[in-house]
Amino acid sequence: MVKAKFSTWASALCFLSLCGDAAAHPAATAAACKADLKGLLTDPARHWAVNTTVSFPGDATFANATERWSIFSAPTYSAAVSPGTEADVSKVINLARTYGIPFMARSGGHGYAASFGKLQNGLSLDMSKFNTVKIDSAAKTLTVGPGARYRDILDPLYNAGFYVQTGSCSCPSVIGVAIGGGVGRLMGELGLTADALQSVRLVGADGVAKTVSATSYPDLWWAIRGAGANFGVITSATFKVQTLASNNNGNVFMLDFYLPKEKSLDYFKVIEKHYSPMPANLAAVLVLNWNSTLNVSQVGSDWIFFGTEADARKALAPILALGAQYISATIPWNKIIAISGAGYDPENCLPNKPRNSFSLNQKVYSAVGWQQGFETITDFFEKNPGGRASQIMLELFGNQATAAVPASETCWPWRDVRGFFQAQFVYDATDSATQQAANTYGAKIRSQYAPYTGYSKPTVFVNYARGDEPIENVFGADKLPRLAQLKHKYDPSNLFAYGHPLPQSYP
Ligand SMILES: Cc1cc2nc3c(=O)[nH]c(=O)nc-3n(C[C@H](O)[C@H](O)[C@H](O)COP(=O)(O)OP(=O)(O)OC[C@H]3O[C@@H](n4cnc5c(N)ncnc54)[C@H](O)[C@@H]3O)c2cc1C
């Protein structure tokens, strides 16, 4: 026993010396680091809880504990810990701090910054076992663990008589979305997902679990709503929810249609003229993609109106005047993601594909800017058949409730934003020619569109950032001095270093 302990500590010391500075390692040391990490994690002295799982490449549970939506420039892992208790989350963080183990928390695995790939042969702190969903009807709150995805909260909330702001897809984790701000169709009426937060439990870089709220660690409370991946690992979050009775009993009007590219500029002009700014209770998601049946590019549109059909038809009159072939229906709020956009959600949520993204915030709507992006991606489709599952997604949301929250309330910097432009390139993982073309076209589309966003320089919010943007364009130059000061206070050894890391000082 004593001997076993000695050898583990000896290997731990070796680990510290080999792996403490990941950037400085020659590849030759990676195998040694891997072996030492295994020794550390399987040492009986860890006393993991019975429901905590430790896994390694080849183990049945490893794939789930490390799975990612995008495998483009993804992190790689030598080991995963899926804690079953908050105490084991602390244990992992303490181990990582003591031995210099590079690691990243994983909740839904839907973060897709190309910069995540800087983590190689690391440790996945997989939070998927924290997947509880609790609704307190009297308090009108929802409490979720980081393993809970949007698909896990929609029906339970609706059935209990509530709704809440969500993202546009069912698969990301609710907490992962919220700590980057969280944008979606209800930004006009309710604000960001982060604006619904009431408190979180967070295990900090010191390994200590704390409640963070307006009254407990208020400085962290400001920082986690927009830069939350930088300050600790959140083990649960409580959100305020709204009653369905307060909003047309939770029923919305949906209008979906496709237009060929020949009609796209006229359509974009209608949007620019009539919906800029977007009414608070209206939202649109447009997809500029390739129709592989007709072999042409097209615009798919999904408009959602929070209110009655009669009011929706008035609000959507300029769109209805286009004379497209519409699919319309009144649907309950909890089915928006499943039904809208011709049921795009399962395809959009497929994991393990390279998804190479270039995104920008937009404050104004520009028909000319969108059309230019459409022309460029159509050129990409025509020349790169392997990339025809790619798309430009335009999310057009009201921002009235988002803008009504004082800028000083959270670190989220873009409360004047009214939409999001994302070029997402998808191709086969082995198709390096299409990947190269995607890199070129993506950078071109992003720089072509930047002058049309309404911002004096290109900006992007953290959930959609690629990771190659200047840090001011992601977190905002005015927020960075305080964010950097808090990073230094709460994560001085830069443990949370891979999810859009903040600097320790700024400027
Ligand atoms: C299909 C799809 C649809 C999306 N739709 C929207 C949308 O409508 N609105 C929107 O705002 N965003 C959207 N996003 C972006 C999404 O919000 C971010 O990718 C978010 O980071 C995903 O969180 P996750 O937990 O699923 O990802 P992960 O990859 O698990 O985590 C992302 C980052 O957060 C950190 N992190 C994970 N868990 C924790 C934790 N418990 N505590 C602290 N840090 C943690 C990770 O280390 C990583 O840096 C979408 C993404 C995808 C892929």
TrEMBL record:
Stored Pfam families: BBE (PF08031), FAD_binding_4 (PF01565)
PROSITE patterns for this protein: FAD_PCMH, PROKAR_LIPOPROTEIN
Gene3D superfamilies: 3.30.465.10, 3.40.462.20
Residue ranges constituting the FAD-binding PCMH-type domain according to the UniProt record: 73-244
Keywords noted in UniProt: FAD, Flavoprotein, Oxidoreductase, Signal
InterPro entries hit by this protein: BBE, FAD-bd_PCMH, FAD-bd_PCMH-like_sf, FAD-bd_PCMH_sub2, FAD-linked_Oxidoreductase, Oxid_FAD_bind_N
GO molecular function, one term: FAD binding
Signal peptide segment: 1-24
Protein name (Swiss-Prot/TrEMBL): FAD-binding PCMH-type domain-containing protein
Organism placement in taxonomy: Eukaryota, Fungi, Dikarya, Ascomycota, Pezizomycotina
